[in-house]
Amino acid sequence: MAAMDLFGRRWALRILWELRAGPIGARALLAQCEGLSSSVLYQRLRELTSSGLISPSSDGYELTPMGADLGRALAPLDQWANTWARKQEQERDERADQPGRPPERD
Known about the structure:
mainly alpha, Arc Repressor Mutant, subunit A, two-stranded antiparallel ribbon
């Protein structure tokens, strides 16, 4: 399976992201990923395990060394996303502060 195909599957990157700080059990992953169904979670866990990015542990699931390498590769994207989100919020605040302009709805 090509990496981009795997990463493009719903919830795959989010699951990997949640595992970045250490092992997590399936129930905790479900709780941290609002809207994720248990069937999709277990399917993604199987795929990520078979791809060598995560492995089962006594505490649930954890990143393999290759999975941890992916986390380091994604760190610049996370940094960019945080900068982008702050800029979006700042622009939204600036527009809301303009007189005579109604506030935007999300």
